[in-house]
Amino acid sequence: MAERSDLSVSYVGEIEVAVKWPSAENLERLSRALHVKPYQLFLEPADGESLHAWLERRDQIVELGEDLIAYFEKRRP
Fold it and tell me: 17-28, pLDDT tens digit by residue?
């Protein structure tokens, strides 16, 4: 993970054991290394749910939220 995200091994280890909290830039690096969106690093799959199904479900929820925001912004006078 450290190599794929271009971060030090010790830094990634400290994140994994909650000693350090990554900056927004480093969250972006980690998410790119994992091929996920940054918000997906904070979500957990349901019991027995595959990673693929979980990512797809989360993307659909975010898309729906974005659509709702756009809808209500258009209705504002």
Answer: 889 889 989 999
- Tens of pLDDT, residues 57-69: 777 777 777 777 7
- d(Cα 40, Cα 59) in Å, to the nearest integer? 9
Q: Of 8, 4, 54, give the one whose Cα is nearest residue 29.
A: 4
Check residue 42 and report its DSSP letter: G
pTM for this prediction: 0.56
Alpha helices (runs of H) in 1-77, residue ranges in sequence order:
2-5, 9-16, 24-34, 51-75
Beta strands in the chain (DSSP E): none
Helices (H) and strands (E) in the chain, counts: 4, 0
Rounded Cα gap, residues 72 and 48, in angstroms: 36
Domain positions in the chain: 1-42, 43-77
